[in-house]
Amino acid sequence: MIYRLAYLFHIVMLWILIIGCYGSVQLNNDVEFYRNQKPTNLNHPALQWNRKMKNPIKGLITVNDSLALVWTHRSGVMILNLNNGKKEGSVWTPPMGGHITDLTVSKDGQLFAYVSMKNKVIGAYDIRKGKHIWKRNADNLIKNKPLILSDSIMVVGLRSGIKLFNLNNGEIIKEKLNRLGVIKLFPTSLERFLMVTDSGFLQCYDYQLSKIWSQTLSLNFESNINVDQDRIFIGPGRDTLWVLDEETGNIQNSIQFINGLEFTVQDNDLFFLYRDGLLKRTSLNKRTFWVSDFELGIPGESFFHTDENIFVPFAKGAVINVNMNTGTEIWRSDSLQRLTGFWQAGRGFLMQDIKYQMQYYR
């Protein structure tokens, strides 16, 4: 009898993994997503909690001061309480297991679109109803978050081109092959999107998949973007940061960015983070204000700034706070082991190391 029950349990679990998903993740209708809100009063952040997670976090989107939507490497999507580091409610595990490459929340905060390269699946989920809406098989996905246009169109990048889907039902709206190959997609502040090709072209398309403009910039998979005041900042490409007019694609400026890793923009000033750990502040007219070396080795993959400070993660396990005006270090986090994740979250930031240890500061 026990053997039969155990056998039946394993059959049921296998069936769930093969045909669908289980669990749910849900937000109340009165909970609103923050949009591009920067933390404040972070001169000397205080440690809020330190926890070892069962599953490492792969990505995070801030909901508000207290909550974040996170997806993990193995167990799906959940709501993380930033006040105590515990999950809120249950976890939604997508079809064929919990392997989500990336996801994007719609502007109205109703749905999120997701892609899974490992399982060759794309889909959409209603986070207010806690309901999986649709999923489709998709081959040759690129490692890129899906884009959402007008809260109704989902843009998915494939190695061979682009496909547009109806976000609400998964029906294909339009598709376009690209003989140059696709490696990356970026959103813009307009109802358009940008595409980076294998050969380094930057191309701009509208929601009808009509090409608006194209520039040869020698970009690659590691190139990053920042859209600010109708300008596109993108790079490095040919060891250069490019500044383009968002509407026309015309090149307005080019700034040397040799050995560059990441950058951010504030007004007309640029903050460059280099692969050897150097941090530099410069202006669009190429005037350098300061260059700092903190002797902490290789920096992490991302950094962010507030009105007065810059927070930079380093692979060896520390995050530092740098005064934006002087380039001097004014604060340093407690050390972890090698960092594998760093996210701006709520009114602070979350850091994760290779042993799944997590610390949240604000």
Structure description:
It is a single chain. The strands form 8 sheets. This protein has a 4-stranded antiparallel beta sheet, with no helix packed on it. Strands 2-3-4-5 form a 4-stranded antiparallel beta sheet, with no helix packed on it. It has a 4-stranded antiparallel beta sheet with strand order 6-7-8-9, with no helix packed on it. It is mostly beta strands. The protein contains 1 helix and 32 strands.
- Helix fraction, binned, reads under 10%
Strand order in space, largest sheet: 1-32-31-30
- Terminal-residue CA separation: 54 Å
The general outline is: globular
Radius of gyration: 21 Å
Overall structural class, as computed from helix and strand content, comes to: mainly beta
The main pleated sheet reads as: 4 strands, antiparallel
Helix count, per DSSP?
A: 1
In total, the number of strands is 32
Mean pLDDT: 91
**Uncertain runs with pLDDT below 50, 5 residues or more?**
11-20
Into which percentage range does the β-strand content fall?
over 45%
